[in-house]
Design brief:
about 50% strand, mainly beta, four-stranded antiparallel beta sheet, globular
Length: about 230
């Protein structure tokens, strides 16, 4: 009986932790020269079950959204009961001409250098190797939060140490250390991908969003051109 109660409490705690919703990340891919990266996310809001979808086009060298390159279908009464993947497919179909101008056709997702399992504890430092180039990566994430509940806001940045096969070492700071995002409680590196040339890096970041529905998961990326 005690074991059953403990299991029940664990389930309640898990539901409480993510009373909002968890978005699904979609890697649309790189342009042929690796200078652009496009990704998206989709899901359904908790309780109301209203589907949403977002697509973001990023300029890799500047680590900024391409002007006019963000597209969204917001959750609304018209998307209630819809599947998030269906709404995402419709959104993507509506911008195919734009994606062609960016030279992103969905056929160049890049190579995964690091992938974290959802139930894996967040490490303070990541270490991984690109076996195709022989380079070794050490990444540390620095995050800062203030406030609580819906008034929370936070910032973060990454510090990368890159060691080449010949022993040469480079250091890079990635992100905006002083930029505080309202409603974001915490961050987690979920995966790192590179283009076929190995010179464009994309860090896929999970954001923990806090609002009236509880905690939800959304995604962002940080990019670097080597």
């Amino acid at each position: 009986m005690r074991k059953a109660v403990c299991i029940a409490l664990f389930i309640v705690a898990a539901i409480s932790m993510y009373a909002g919703d968890i978005a699904n990340f979609v890697n649309i891919g790189f342009s042929s020269d690796g200078s652009r990266f496009v990704f998206g996310q989709h899901g359904s809001t908790d309780g109301e079950y209203r589907a949403y979808a977002d697509i973001y086009c990023v300029d890799v060298p500047t680590n900024r959204f391409i002007p006019g390159g963000t597209f969204s279908t917001a959750p609304s009464a018209s998307t209630a009961g819809e599947d998030g993947s269906t709404v995402f497919s419709a959104l993507r179909g509506s911008i195919e001409t734009y994606l062609k101008k960016l030279d992103v056709d969905g056929k160049s997702p890049g190579r995964a250098l690091y992938v974290q399992a959802r139930d894996e504890k967040r490490p303070d430092k990541l270490e991984f190797r690109d076996f195709e180039t022989g380079r070794t990566f050490t990444v540390s994430m620095h995050s800062f939060a203030e406030g609580s509940g819906e008034s929370v806001r936070s910032s973060f940045y990454l510090v990368l140490e890159l060691v080449y096969p010949d022993g040469k070492t480079d250091h890079h700071t990635i992100g905006l250390p002083g930029y505080k995002r309202s409603g974001i409680k915490d961050y987690r590196i979920r995966r790192v991908v590179t283009d076929e040339s190995g010179t464009s890096l994309v860090f896929v970041i999970e954001k923990i969003l806090v609002d009236t529905r509880g905690e939800s998961v959304r995604f962002m990326v940080e990019t670097l051109k080597l």
